[in-house]
Design goal:
Elements lengths: L1 E14 L2 E6 L2 E7 L6 H13 L3 E2 L5 E3 L1 H6 L9 E6 L21 H17 L4 E3 L6 E16 H4 L2
Parallel strand pairs: 3-6, 6-7
Antiparallel strand pairs: 1-2, 1-3, 1-8, 4-5
Helix pairs in contact: 1-3
């Protein structure tokens, strides 16, 4: 399972002109699933995302996680959120020819529940989560802060 994280000032996803998910400050998580991924992979990846220190502390260093900011939230500030968007193209193979192959991406009936497990695990950890619509043609808008963009893969996390 893979996720491309982007630290954002805000992000939203629309389908056919309708907003289906949006967050203010937080993390946009583009999530890809491959054939041998499991619910354990989804939970591992979600925990890593929630605890990853990619937000600035008072000195400007990346020492704060989404969970840290959520714990410090006030009534006027909800802390941070996570926008989860399924992205099968994270498993594109463009080594040959000019058209990428997506054979390494899991089929929708396998991938959709794992993307949902990823989002549910983030919620269970205490983070507000918005989601795109699985399988839909989505328009994703974001303001990348930093910019901070990080690639995570469960293959690397388990090594």
């Amino acid at each position: 399972m893979r996720v491309l994280l982007q630290r954002v000032g805000r992000a939203r996803v629309t389908v056919a002109g309708e907003e289906v998910g949006a967050i203010g400050r937080g993390i946009l998580a583009l999530v890809g699933v491959t054939h041998d991924d499991t619910t354990d992979d989804a939970a591992l990846l979600a925990a890593k995302v929630a605890h990853l220190r990619i937000f600035d502390d008072a000195t400007g260093h990346l020492n704060r996680s989404a969970l840290d900011l959520r714990a410090d939230a006030t009534a006027d500030d909800s802390g941070v959120g996570v926008l989860v968007v399924s992205q099968f193209t994270l498993y594109a193979d463009a080594r040959k020819g000019r058209r990428p192959s997506f054979v390494r991406a899991a089929p929708p009936d396998q991938a959709a529940p794992l993307v949902d497990t990823f989002a549910t695990t983030l919620r269970d950890l205490g983070l507000p989560v918005a989601q795109g619509r699985f399988g839909a043609e989505m328009m994703v808008e974001l303001v990348n802060v930093g910019p901070v963009t990080i690639w995570l893969d469960t293959t690397d996390l388990r090594a």
